[in-house]
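Protein chain data
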Amino acid sequence: MPALPKRASPRSAPHPAPPLWADGPVLLDALPIAAAIIEHDVKGSRIAAHNLRFAEAVAISSAQTMAGLKRQCLSGEGLIAEHLIQWFESEAPVSDLDFRDGAGVSARFYRLKLAPLPSHGECRRALCSVVDRTAEVQAERTLRAEMLRDSLTGLPNRLAFTEMIEAAERKVEAGTAGHAVLVVDMLRFSRINESMGSLAGDELLITFARRLISALRAGDSLARTGGNEFGIVVTLRRGMSDALKAALRIQEAMNAPFKLSELEIKVECAIGLAIMQPGQDSEELFRNAQFAVKQAKASGRPEVYEPKEASLARRRFSIETELRRALDRDLLDLFYQPLINLKTGEVTGFEALARWTHEDRGEISPTEFIPVAEESGLILSLGRWAMDRAASTLAGWDATAGQKLPFYVAVNLSAIQVARDDIAAMVGGALRSTGLSGDRLTLELTESSIVQDPRRATRVFDALKALDTTVAMDDFGTGYSSLAYLQRLPIDVLKIDRSFVTGMMVDPDSVAIVRAVLSLADALGMSTTAEGIESRELATTLAALGCASGQGYFFAKPLATDEALEFWQSRLRKPATKGSRR
Protein backbone atom coordinates (compact mmCIF):
# COMPACT_ATOMS: atom_id res chain seq x y z
CA MET A 1 0.00 0.00 0.00
CA PRO A 2 1.58 3.19 -1.05
CA ALA A 3 2.40 5.60 1.68
CA LEU A 4 0.15 8.64 1.97
CA PRO A 5 1.79 11.97 1.76
CA LYS A 6 2.56 13.49 5.11
CA ARG A 7 0.36 16.40 6.20
CA ALA A 8 2.19 19.47 7.01
CA SER A 9 2.51 20.21 10.66
CA PRO A 10 0.40 23.19 11.69
CA ARG A 11 3.43 24.51 13.51
CA SER A 12 5.61 24.34 10.43
CA ALA A 13 6.43 27.75 8.90
CA PRO A 14 4.44 28.47 5.72
CA HIS A 15 6.20 29.09 2.47
CA PRO A 16 6.54 32.84 1.78
CA ALA A 17 3.85 34.11 -0.61
CA PRO A 18 5.14 35.14 -3.96
CA PRO A 19 5.26 38.87 -4.52
CA LEU A 20 2.20 40.37 -6.24
CA TRP A 21 4.13 41.42 -9.29
CA ALA A 22 5.59 37.93 -9.79
CA ASP A 23 2.31 36.71 -11.20
CA GLY A 24 1.25 40.17 -12.30
CA PRO A 25 -0.47 39.31 -15.57
CA VAL A 26 -2.44 36.47 -13.92
CA LEU A 27 -3.65 38.64 -11.05
CA LEU A 28 -4.34 41.61 -13.29
CA ASP A 29 -6.50 39.51 -15.59
CA ALA A 30 -8.71 38.78 -12.59
CA LEU A 31 -9.49 42.47 -12.16
CA PRO A 32 -12.71 43.70 -13.81
CA ILE A 33 -11.08 46.96 -14.95
CA ALA A 34 -8.19 47.95 -17.18
CA ALA A 35 -5.07 47.74 -15.01
CA ALA A 36 -1.29 47.65 -15.28
CA ILE A 37 1.73 47.44 -12.98
CA ILE A 38 4.13 50.32 -13.39
CA GLU A 39 7.69 50.25 -12.08
CA HIS A 40 9.76 53.32 -11.34
CA ASP A 41 13.44 53.73 -10.51
CA VAL A 42 16.32 56.00 -11.36
CA LYS A 43 16.06 54.94 -14.98
CA GLY A 44 12.46 56.10 -15.24
CA SER A 45 9.04 54.49 -15.41
CA ARG A 46 7.90 51.50 -17.39
CA ILE A 47 4.94 49.16 -17.72
CA ALA A 48 5.91 45.87 -16.13
CA ALA A 49 2.62 44.06 -16.78
CA HIS A 50 -0.96 44.76 -17.86
CA ASN A 51 -4.19 42.89 -18.43
CA LEU A 52 -6.23 42.46 -21.59
CA ARG A 53 -8.67 45.23 -20.72
CA PHE A 54 -5.78 47.65 -20.44
CA ALA A 55 -4.52 46.60 -23.86
CA GLU A 56 -7.99 47.12 -25.33
CA ALA A 57 -8.23 50.57 -23.79
CA VAL A 58 -4.88 51.48 -25.32
CA ALA A 59 -5.92 50.08 -28.68
CA ILE A 60 -8.97 52.35 -29.07
CA SER A 61 -7.22 55.48 -27.86
CA SER A 62 -5.19 58.08 -29.66
CA ALA A 63 -1.41 58.16 -29.66
CA GLN A 64 -1.36 61.36 -27.61
CA THR A 65 -2.42 59.76 -24.35
CA MET A 66 -3.32 56.13 -23.66
CA ALA A 67 -1.63 54.63 -26.71
CA GLY A 68 1.44 56.68 -25.95
CA LEU A 69 1.60 55.55 -22.34
CA LYS A 70 4.57 53.23 -22.91
CA ARG A 71 6.42 55.97 -24.79
CA GLN A 72 5.57 58.50 -22.10
CA CYS A 73 6.90 56.23 -19.40
CA LEU A 74 10.18 55.79 -21.26
CA SER A 75 10.62 59.46 -22.18
CA GLY A 76 9.16 60.98 -19.02
CA GLU A 77 7.19 63.45 -21.16
CA GLY A 78 3.44 63.87 -21.48
CA LEU A 79 0.42 64.34 -19.25
CA ILE A 80 0.37 60.83 -17.77
CA ALA A 81 4.17 60.57 -17.43
CA GLU A 82 4.32 63.86 -15.53
CA HIS A 83 1.53 62.68 -13.25
CA LEU A 84 3.38 59.38 -12.58
CA ILE A 85 6.65 61.15 -11.73
CA GLN A 86 4.92 63.57 -9.35
CA TRP A 87 3.09 60.74 -7.61
CA PHE A 88 6.18 58.54 -7.16
CA GLU A 89 8.13 61.51 -5.81
CA SER A 90 5.35 62.66 -3.46
CA GLU A 91 4.74 59.22 -1.91
CA ALA A 92 1.02 59.96 -1.74
CA PRO A 93 -1.19 56.96 -0.84
CA VAL A 94 -3.44 57.22 -3.92
CA SER A 95 -3.86 59.63 -6.81
CA ASP A 96 -6.53 60.27 -9.46
CA LEU A 97 -6.16 61.92 -12.85
CA ASP A 98 -9.09 62.77 -15.12
CA PHE A 99 -8.15 63.43 -18.73
CA ARG A 100 -9.58 63.56 -22.22
CA ASP A 101 -8.20 61.44 -25.01
CA GLY A 102 -8.77 62.92 -28.43
CA ALA A 103 -11.02 65.75 -29.53
CA GLY A 104 -14.44 66.39 -30.99
CA VAL A 105 -17.15 63.76 -31.16
CA SER A 106 -14.58 60.95 -31.04
CA ALA A 107 -13.07 62.15 -27.75
CA ARG A 108 -12.95 59.67 -24.88
CA PHE A 109 -12.72 60.45 -21.19
CA TYR A 110 -10.71 58.46 -18.65
CA ARG A 111 -9.91 58.42 -14.96
CA LEU A 112 -6.45 57.06 -14.08
CA LYS A 113 -5.89 55.94 -10.51
CA LEU A 114 -2.57 55.00 -8.89
CA ALA A 115 -2.20 52.81 -5.77
CA PRO A 116 1.12 51.75 -4.23
CA LEU A 117 2.49 48.18 -4.40
CA PRO A 118 5.37 46.77 -2.33
CA SER A 119 8.73 48.10 -3.50
CA HIS A 120 11.64 45.94 -4.51
CA GLY A 121 14.85 47.59 -3.51
CA GLU A 122 15.18 50.91 -5.28
CA CYS A 123 12.37 50.01 -7.66
CA ARG A 124 8.99 51.36 -6.67
CA ARG A 125 5.83 49.88 -8.07
CA ALA A 126 2.25 51.02 -8.49
CA LEU A 127 -1.04 49.52 -9.60
CA CYS A 128 -2.41 51.73 -12.37
CA SER A 129 -6.14 51.32 -13.11
CA VAL A 130 -7.93 53.08 -15.94
CA VAL A 131 -11.71 53.61 -16.10
CA ASP A 132 -13.37 54.70 -19.32
CA ARG A 133 -15.80 57.50 -18.29
CA THR A 134 -16.87 58.46 -21.80
CA ALA A 135 -20.49 57.30 -21.43
CA GLU A 136 -20.75 58.94 -17.99
CA VAL A 137 -19.33 62.27 -19.21
CA GLN A 138 -21.55 62.29 -22.27
CA ALA A 139 -24.59 61.57 -20.09
CA GLU A 140 -23.63 64.41 -17.77
CA ARG A 141 -23.21 66.76 -20.71
CA THR A 142 -26.57 65.74 -22.16
CA LEU A 143 -28.27 66.24 -18.81
CA ARG A 144 -26.59 69.61 -18.34
CA ALA A 145 -27.62 70.68 -21.84
CA GLU A 146 -31.21 69.76 -21.00
CA MET A 147 -30.98 71.69 -17.73
CA LEU A 148 -29.76 74.77 -19.59
CA ARG A 149 -32.29 74.62 -22.43
CA ASP A 150 -35.85 75.91 -22.60
CA SER A 151 -37.93 72.99 -23.80
CA LEU A 152 -40.51 75.15 -25.63
CA THR A 153 -38.37 77.54 -27.67
CA GLY A 154 -35.11 75.61 -27.67
CA LEU A 155 -33.33 78.72 -26.37
CA PRO A 156 -31.01 78.79 -23.36
CA ASN A 157 -32.98 79.15 -20.13
CA ARG A 158 -32.60 81.38 -17.06
CA LEU A 159 -29.70 79.37 -15.62
CA ALA A 160 -27.85 79.39 -18.92
CA PHE A 161 -28.43 83.13 -19.25
CA THR A 162 -26.63 83.68 -15.94
CA GLU A 163 -23.65 81.79 -17.34
CA MET A 164 -23.82 83.88 -20.51
CA ILE A 165 -23.68 87.06 -18.42
CA GLU A 166 -20.73 85.72 -16.42
CA ALA A 167 -18.85 84.87 -19.63
CA ALA A 168 -19.49 88.40 -20.93
CA GLU A 169 -18.35 89.88 -17.61
CA ARG A 170 -15.00 88.14 -17.96
CA LYS A 171 -14.56 89.86 -21.31
CA VAL A 172 -15.49 93.20 -19.75
CA GLU A 173 -12.95 92.73 -16.96
CA ALA A 174 -10.31 91.77 -19.53
CA GLY A 175 -11.13 94.92 -21.49
CA THR A 176 -11.77 93.03 -24.71
CA ALA A 177 -15.41 94.11 -25.20
CA GLY A 178 -18.29 95.94 -23.57
CA HIS A 179 -21.68 94.34 -23.01
CA ALA A 180 -25.21 95.22 -21.98
CA VAL A 181 -28.11 93.10 -20.78
CA LEU A 182 -31.54 93.64 -22.31
CA VAL A 183 -34.70 92.18 -20.82
CA VAL A 184 -37.68 91.99 -23.18
CA ASP A 185 -41.14 91.49 -21.67
CA MET A 186 -44.02 90.53 -23.95
CA LEU A 187 -47.03 92.66 -22.97
CA ARG A 188 -50.61 91.37 -22.78
CA PHE A 189 -49.41 87.76 -22.95
CA SER A 190 -51.59 86.61 -20.06
CA ARG A 191 -54.70 87.98 -21.73
CA ILE A 192 -53.84 86.25 -25.02
CA ASN A 193 -53.10 83.01 -23.17
CA GLU A 194 -56.37 83.14 -21.26
CA SER A 195 -58.56 84.01 -24.24
CA MET A 196 -56.99 81.77 -26.87
CA GLY A 197 -55.61 78.90 -24.81
CA SER A 198 -52.18 77.65 -23.82
CA LEU A 199 -51.41 76.09 -27.21
CA ALA A 200 -51.88 79.44 -28.94
CA GLY A 201 -49.80 81.03 -26.21
CA ASP A 202 -46.98 78.55 -26.81
CA GLU A 203 -47.15 79.20 -30.55
CA LEU A 204 -46.92 82.93 -29.89
CA LEU A 205 -43.87 82.49 -27.65
CA ILE A 206 -42.08 80.42 -30.30
CA THR A 207 -42.82 82.98 -33.03
CA PHE A 208 -41.85 85.83 -30.73
CA ALA A 209 -38.52 84.10 -29.99
CA ARG A 210 -37.82 83.66 -33.72
CA ARG A 211 -38.39 87.34 -34.36
CA LEU A 212 -36.05 88.22 -31.51
CA ILE A 213 -33.36 86.05 -33.09
CA SER A 214 -33.83 87.83 -36.41
CA ALA A 215 -33.25 91.20 -34.69
CA LEU A 216 -29.91 90.22 -33.15
CA ARG A 217 -26.43 90.75 -34.52
CA ALA A 218 -23.61 88.24 -34.61
CA GLY A 219 -22.14 87.97 -31.13
CA ASP A 220 -25.42 88.74 -29.32
CA SER A 221 -26.96 85.97 -27.18
CA LEU A 222 -30.63 85.28 -26.48
CA ALA A 223 -32.33 83.26 -23.73
CA ARG A 224 -35.83 82.74 -22.40
CA THR A 225 -35.63 83.84 -18.76
CA GLY A 226 -39.28 83.56 -17.75
CA GLY A 227 -42.80 82.83 -18.96
CA ASN A 228 -43.03 85.79 -21.35
CA GLU A 229 -39.64 87.30 -20.60
CA PHE A 230 -36.47 87.06 -22.70
CA GLY A 231 -32.92 88.11 -21.89
CA ILE A 232 -30.28 89.27 -24.36
CA VAL A 233 -26.56 89.87 -23.89
CA VAL A 234 -25.56 92.52 -26.42
CA THR A 235 -21.96 93.19 -27.45
CA LEU A 236 -21.23 96.92 -27.43
CA ARG A 237 -18.92 98.11 -30.14
CA ARG A 238 -19.94 101.78 -29.92
CA GLY A 239 -21.14 101.99 -26.33
CA MET A 240 -24.69 102.73 -25.23
CA SER A 241 -25.87 103.51 -28.76
CA ASP A 242 -25.47 99.83 -29.70
CA ALA A 243 -27.77 98.78 -26.86
CA LEU A 244 -30.42 101.36 -27.77
CA LYS A 245 -30.23 100.39 -31.44
CA ALA A 246 -30.74 96.75 -30.45
CA ALA A 247 -33.87 97.76 -28.53
CA LEU A 248 -35.18 99.67 -31.56
CA ARG A 249 -34.50 96.71 -33.87
CA ILE A 250 -36.50 94.49 -31.53
CA GLN A 251 -39.43 96.91 -31.50
CA GLU A 252 -39.35 97.14 -35.30
CA ALA A 253 -39.32 93.33 -35.56
CA MET A 254 -42.52 93.23 -33.51
CA ASN A 255 -44.37 95.81 -35.62
CA ALA A 256 -45.91 93.24 -37.95
CA PRO A 257 -48.93 91.45 -36.42
CA PHE A 258 -48.59 87.86 -35.25
CA LYS A 259 -50.93 85.41 -36.95
CA LEU A 260 -52.50 82.87 -34.59
CA SER A 261 -55.08 80.57 -36.16
CA GLU A 262 -57.35 82.98 -38.05
CA LEU A 263 -56.50 86.01 -35.93
CA GLU A 264 -53.83 88.66 -36.35
CA ILE A 265 -52.57 90.02 -33.05
CA LYS A 266 -50.38 93.05 -32.47
CA VAL A 267 -47.87 92.28 -29.76
CA GLU A 268 -45.92 94.99 -27.98
CA CYS A 269 -42.99 94.58 -25.64
CA ALA A 270 -41.29 96.50 -22.85
CA ILE A 271 -37.49 96.62 -22.98
CA GLY A 272 -35.14 97.37 -20.09
CA LEU A 273 -31.39 97.85 -20.47
CA ALA A 274 -28.50 97.64 -18.01
CA ILE A 275 -24.87 98.34 -18.92
CA MET A 276 -22.37 95.80 -17.63
CA GLN A 277 -19.71 97.14 -15.25
CA PRO A 278 -16.42 95.40 -14.30
CA GLY A 279 -16.79 93.26 -11.20
CA GLN A 280 -20.59 93.46 -11.21
CA ASP A 281 -22.58 90.47 -9.95
CA SER A 282 -24.53 88.75 -12.74
CA GLU A 283 -27.73 88.48 -10.70
CA GLU A 284 -27.57 92.15 -9.78
CA LEU A 285 -27.11 93.11 -13.42
CA PHE A 286 -30.12 91.02 -14.45
CA ARG A 287 -32.25 92.57 -11.69
CA ASN A 288 -31.21 96.02 -12.87
CA ALA A 289 -32.46 95.25 -16.38
CA GLN A 290 -35.70 93.86 -14.95
CA PHE A 291 -36.17 97.05 -12.94
CA ALA A 292 -35.73 99.06 -16.12
CA VAL A 293 -38.46 96.92 -17.72
CA LYS A 294 -40.95 98.11 -15.08
CA GLN A 295 -40.11 101.70 -15.98
CA ALA A 296 -40.45 100.86 -19.68
CA LYS A 297 -43.96 99.54 -19.07
CA ALA A 298 -44.91 102.89 -17.53
CA SER A 299 -43.20 105.10 -20.13
CA GLY A 300 -43.93 103.05 -23.25
CA ARG A 301 -40.33 103.21 -24.51
CA PRO A 302 -37.05 101.35 -23.83
CA GLU A 303 -35.53 102.44 -20.53
CA VAL A 304 -31.93 102.33 -19.29
CA TYR A 305 -31.35 101.39 -15.67
CA GLU A 306 -30.55 104.37 -13.46
CA PRO A 307 -29.16 103.73 -9.95
CA LYS A 308 -31.05 106.75 -8.61
CA GLU A 309 -34.40 105.31 -9.67
CA ALA A 310 -33.52 101.97 -8.10
CA SER A 311 -32.59 103.74 -4.87
CA LEU A 312 -36.00 105.41 -4.83
CA ALA A 313 -37.66 102.05 -5.44
CA ARG A 314 -35.78 100.53 -2.50
CA ARG A 315 -36.90 103.45 -0.38
CA ARG A 316 -40.51 102.78 -1.37
CA PHE A 317 -40.17 99.16 -0.29
CA SER A 318 -38.65 100.30 2.97
CA ILE A 319 -41.47 102.79 3.50
CA GLU A 320 -44.01 100.03 2.83
CA THR A 321 -42.50 97.91 5.61
CA GLU A 322 -42.33 100.84 8.01
CA LEU A 323 -45.87 101.98 7.15
CA ARG A 324 -47.29 98.54 7.86
CA ARG A 325 -45.55 98.60 11.23
CA ALA A 326 -46.76 102.14 11.93
CA LEU A 327 -50.38 101.15 11.23
CA ASP A 328 -50.09 98.13 13.49
CA ARG A 329 -48.69 100.29 16.31
CA ASP A 330 -50.99 103.30 15.71
CA LEU A 331 -48.05 105.63 15.05
CA LEU A 332 -49.79 107.83 12.45
CA ASP A 333 -51.87 110.88 13.22
CA LEU A 334 -54.60 112.97 11.60
CA PHE A 335 -54.26 116.71 11.12
CA TYR A 336 -57.19 118.92 10.16
CA GLN A 337 -57.11 121.76 7.62
CA PRO A 338 -59.95 124.28 8.03
CA LEU A 339 -62.53 124.80 5.30
CA ILE A 340 -63.61 128.45 5.35
CA ASN A 341 -66.88 130.03 4.23
CA LEU A 342 -65.55 132.70 1.85
CA LYS A 343 -68.47 135.05 2.55
CA THR A 344 -68.62 134.91 6.37
CA GLY A 345 -65.08 133.77 7.20
CA GLU A 346 -66.37 131.10 9.55
CA VAL A 347 -65.11 127.53 9.65
CA THR A 348 -67.59 125.20 7.92
CA GLY A 349 -65.52 122.07 8.29
CA PHE A 350 -62.11 120.41 8.43
CA GLU A 351 -60.40 118.12 5.95
CA ALA A 352 -58.70 115.22 7.74
CA LEU A 353 -55.17 114.63 6.43
CA ALA A 354 -52.89 111.74 7.45
CA ARG A 355 -49.48 112.69 8.84
CA TRP A 356 -46.56 110.43 9.69
CA THR A 357 -43.51 111.33 11.73
CA HIS A 358 -41.04 108.45 11.68
CA GLU A 359 -38.79 107.97 14.68
CA ASP A 360 -35.67 107.79 12.49
CA ARG A 361 -36.61 109.35 9.14
CA GLY A 362 -38.53 112.26 10.61
CA GLU A 363 -41.61 113.59 8.85
CA ILE A 364 -42.58 111.58 5.77
CA SER A 365 -44.72 113.46 3.27
CA PRO A 366 -48.17 112.09 2.35
CA THR A 367 -47.17 112.53 -1.30
CA GLU A 368 -44.62 109.79 -0.62
CA PHE A 369 -46.37 107.31 1.65
CA ILE A 370 -49.91 107.52 0.22
CA PRO A 371 -48.82 106.20 -3.25
CA VAL A 372 -46.88 103.44 -1.47
CA ALA A 373 -50.00 102.56 0.51
CA GLU A 374 -52.07 102.43 -2.68
CA GLU A 375 -49.53 100.29 -4.52
CA SER A 376 -49.13 97.81 -1.65
CA GLY A 377 -52.81 97.59 -0.66
CA LEU A 378 -52.16 99.19 2.73
CA ILE A 379 -54.50 102.00 1.68
CA LEU A 380 -57.41 99.83 2.84
CA SER A 381 -56.09 99.70 6.41
CA LEU A 382 -55.01 103.33 6.25
CA GLY A 383 -58.42 104.43 4.97
CA ARG A 384 -60.32 102.57 7.69
CA TRP A 385 -58.00 103.98 10.34
CA ALA A 386 -58.50 107.54 9.01
CA MET A 387 -62.30 107.16 8.92
CA ASP A 388 -62.50 105.85 12.49
CA ARG A 389 -60.04 108.45 13.80
CA ALA A 390 -61.80 111.37 12.08
CA ALA A 391 -65.22 110.32 13.35
CA SER A 392 -63.87 109.80 16.86
CA THR A 393 -62.19 113.23 16.82
CA LEU A 394 -65.38 114.98 15.70
CA ALA A 395 -67.38 113.19 18.40
CA GLY A 396 -64.72 114.20 20.91
CA TRP A 397 -64.99 117.85 19.89
CA ASP A 398 -68.76 117.66 20.39
CA ALA A 399 -68.25 116.18 23.85
CA THR A 400 -65.72 118.89 24.77
CA ALA A 401 -68.10 121.65 23.65
CA GLY A 402 -71.10 119.94 25.20
CA GLN A 403 -73.10 120.36 22.01
CA LYS A 404 -73.28 119.38 18.37
CA LEU A 405 -70.80 121.68 16.69
CA PRO A 406 -71.82 123.40 13.41
CA PHE A 407 -69.19 121.92 11.13
CA TYR A 408 -68.25 118.65 9.47
CA VAL A 409 -65.11 116.61 8.83
CA ALA A 410 -64.10 115.60 5.31
CA VAL A 411 -62.28 112.30 4.75
CA ASN A 412 -60.53 111.34 1.51
CA LEU A 413 -61.31 108.01 -0.13
CA SER A 414 -58.80 106.42 -2.50
CA ALA A 415 -59.91 104.97 -5.83
CA ILE A 416 -58.45 101.66 -4.65
CA GLN A 417 -60.66 101.79 -1.56
CA VAL A 418 -63.71 102.34 -3.72
CA ALA A 419 -62.72 99.40 -5.92
CA ARG A 420 -61.81 96.91 -3.18
CA ASP A 421 -63.42 97.87 0.11
CA ASP A 422 -66.99 98.04 1.37
CA ILE A 423 -67.08 101.82 1.76
CA ALA A 424 -70.66 102.06 2.94
CA ALA A 425 -70.09 99.47 5.69
CA MET A 426 -66.92 101.26 6.79
CA VAL A 427 -68.62 104.69 7.00
CA GLY A 428 -71.73 103.23 8.61
CA GLY A 429 -69.62 101.50 11.24
CA ALA A 430 -67.80 104.73 12.08
CA LEU A 431 -71.11 106.61 12.43
CA ARG A 432 -72.63 103.95 14.67
CA SER A 433 -69.61 103.67 16.95
CA THR A 434 -69.43 107.43 17.50
CA GLY A 435 -73.13 108.31 17.43
CA LEU A 436 -72.64 110.89 14.68
CA SER A 437 -75.23 111.61 12.05
CA GLY A 438 -74.31 111.18 8.42
CA ASP A 439 -74.42 114.91 7.63
CA ARG A 440 -71.37 115.42 9.83
CA LEU A 441 -69.15 113.54 7.37
CA THR A 442 -68.08 114.49 3.84
CA LEU A 443 -66.46 111.83 1.69
CA GLU A 444 -64.04 113.15 -0.93
CA LEU A 445 -63.47 110.94 -3.98
CA THR A 446 -61.32 111.59 -7.04
CA GLU A 447 -62.49 111.30 -10.62
CA SER A 448 -60.30 108.22 -11.13
CA SER A 449 -62.48 106.28 -8.68
CA ILE A 450 -65.41 106.86 -11.03
CA VAL A 451 -63.62 106.20 -14.30
CA GLN A 452 -62.12 102.85 -13.23
CA ASP A 453 -65.52 101.26 -12.57
CA PRO A 454 -68.51 103.60 -13.14
CA ARG A 455 -71.09 100.99 -12.10
CA ARG A 456 -69.38 100.24 -8.80
CA ALA A 457 -68.83 103.97 -8.20
CA THR A 458 -72.54 104.57 -8.72
CA ARG A 459 -73.42 101.92 -6.14
CA VAL A 460 -70.92 103.38 -3.68
CA PHE A 461 -72.23 106.93 -4.14
CA ASP A 462 -75.84 105.80 -3.68
CA ALA A 463 -74.94 103.85 -0.53
CA LEU A 464 -73.13 106.87 0.94
CA LYS A 465 -76.09 109.13 0.22
CA ALA A 466 -78.34 106.58 1.92
CA LEU A 467 -76.28 107.23 5.06
CA ASP A 468 -77.04 110.96 4.65
CA THR A 469 -73.36 111.82 4.12
CA THR A 470 -72.08 114.54 1.78
CA VAL A 471 -70.17 113.44 -1.32
CA ALA A 472 -67.48 115.67 -2.84
CA MET A 473 -65.48 115.22 -6.05
CA ASP A 474 -61.88 116.10 -5.26
CA ASP A 475 -59.36 117.64 -7.71
CA PHE A 476 -62.08 118.35 -10.23
CA GLY A 477 -60.78 119.12 -13.72
CA THR A 478 -57.44 117.31 -13.44
CA GLY A 479 -58.62 113.83 -14.40
CA TYR A 480 -61.10 112.40 -16.88
CA SER A 481 -64.04 114.67 -16.17
CA SER A 482 -67.35 113.66 -17.68
CA LEU A 483 -70.47 115.83 -17.51
CA ALA A 484 -72.51 112.63 -17.69
CA TYR A 485 -71.04 111.51 -14.35
CA LEU A 486 -71.78 114.88 -12.76
CA GLN A 487 -75.37 114.73 -13.95
CA ARG A 488 -75.98 111.09 -13.02
CA LEU A 489 -74.08 110.68 -9.73
CA PRO A 490 -75.29 112.19 -6.42
CA ILE A 491 -72.36 114.60 -6.03
CA ASP A 492 -72.84 117.50 -3.60
CA VAL A 493 -69.56 119.41 -3.81
CA LEU A 494 -66.99 120.11 -6.52
CA LYS A 495 -63.49 120.84 -5.23
CA ILE A 496 -61.50 123.05 -7.62
CA ASP A 497 -57.92 121.81 -7.85
CA ARG A 498 -55.14 124.04 -6.55
CA SER A 499 -53.40 123.98 -9.95
CA PHE A 500 -56.20 126.21 -11.30
CA VAL A 501 -56.56 128.34 -8.17
CA THR A 502 -52.91 129.28 -7.71
CA GLY A 503 -52.60 130.47 -11.31
CA MET A 504 -55.64 132.72 -11.25
CA MET A 505 -53.77 135.95 -10.51
CA VAL A 506 -51.37 135.57 -13.46
CA ASP A 507 -53.15 133.30 -15.95
CA PRO A 508 -56.42 134.42 -17.58
CA ASP A 509 -57.09 130.82 -18.69
CA SER A 510 -57.09 129.64 -15.07
CA VAL A 511 -59.66 132.34 -14.22
CA ALA A 512 -61.81 131.19 -17.14
CA ILE A 513 -61.61 127.53 -16.00
CA VAL A 514 -62.53 128.40 -12.42
CA ARG A 515 -65.40 130.57 -13.60
CA ALA A 516 -66.66 127.72 -15.82
CA VAL A 517 -66.49 125.20 -12.96
CA LEU A 518 -68.39 127.57 -10.69
CA SER A 519 -71.08 128.09 -13.33
CA LEU A 520 -71.34 124.35 -13.94
CA ALA A 521 -71.69 123.63 -10.23
CA ASP A 522 -74.34 126.29 -9.87
CA ALA A 523 -76.32 124.89 -12.81
CA LEU A 524 -76.18 121.38 -11.29
CA GLY A 525 -77.07 122.57 -7.79
CA MET A 526 -73.66 121.75 -6.32
CA SER A 527 -71.53 123.64 -3.83
CA THR A 528 -67.87 124.48 -4.55
CA THR A 529 -64.65 124.49 -2.57
CA ALA A 530 -61.37 125.98 -3.81
CA GLU A 531 -58.06 124.43 -2.77
CA GLY A 532 -54.71 126.15 -2.45
CA ILE A 533 -55.78 129.67 -1.40
CA GLU A 534 -52.55 131.32 -0.32
CA SER A 535 -53.28 135.05 -0.55
CA ARG A 536 -55.94 137.60 0.34
CA GLU A 537 -56.38 138.44 -3.34
CA LEU A 538 -57.26 134.86 -4.20
CA ALA A 539 -59.76 134.60 -1.36
CA THR A 540 -61.44 137.87 -2.36
CA THR A 541 -61.53 136.98 -6.07
CA LEU A 542 -63.02 133.53 -5.45
CA ALA A 543 -65.63 134.97 -3.15
CA ALA A 544 -66.56 137.53 -5.79
CA LEU A 545 -66.88 134.77 -8.40
CA GLY A 546 -69.30 132.91 -6.17
CA CYS A 547 -67.14 130.13 -4.73
CA ALA A 548 -68.73 128.92 -1.50
CA SER A 549 -65.71 127.83 0.55
CA GLY A 550 -61.97 127.47 0.38
CA GLN A 551 -58.90 126.12 2.11
CA GLY A 552 -55.23 126.94 2.00
CA TYR A 553 -52.27 128.34 3.91
CA PHE A 554 -53.77 131.84 3.78
CA PHE A 555 -56.26 130.60 6.35
CA ALA A 556 -54.31 127.86 8.11
CA LYS A 557 -52.07 124.91 7.55
CA PRO A 558 -53.29 121.45 8.69
CA LEU A 559 -53.63 121.58 12.47
CA ALA A 560 -53.36 119.08 15.31
CA THR A 561 -56.60 118.02 17.00
CA ASP A 562 -56.57 120.57 19.85
CA GLU A 563 -55.31 123.39 17.62
CA ALA A 564 -58.09 122.77 15.11
CA LEU A 565 -60.83 123.22 17.74
CA GLU A 566 -59.17 126.39 18.99
CA PHE A 567 -58.97 127.70 15.43
CA TRP A 568 -62.72 127.18 14.94
CA GLN A 569 -63.43 129.17 18.06
CA SER A 570 -61.11 131.98 16.90
CA ARG A 571 -62.82 132.26 13.51
CA LEU A 572 -66.35 132.78 14.78
CA ARG A 573 -67.95 135.77 13.00
CA LYS A 574 -64.61 136.90 11.44
CA PRO A 575 -64.57 138.27 7.85
CA ALA A 576 -63.27 136.11 5.03
CA THR A 577 -60.41 138.37 4.03
CA LYS A 578 -58.54 138.00 7.31
CA GLY A 579 -56.44 134.87 7.08
CA SER A 580 -53.91 133.54 9.55
CA ARG A 581 -50.62 131.83 8.82
CA ARG A 582 -49.61 129.26 11.37
Summary: Confidence is low (pLDDT under 50) at residues 1-22, 576-582. The chain has three domains: 25-137, 148-305, 331-570. The CA atoms of residues 178 and 239 lie 7 Å apart.
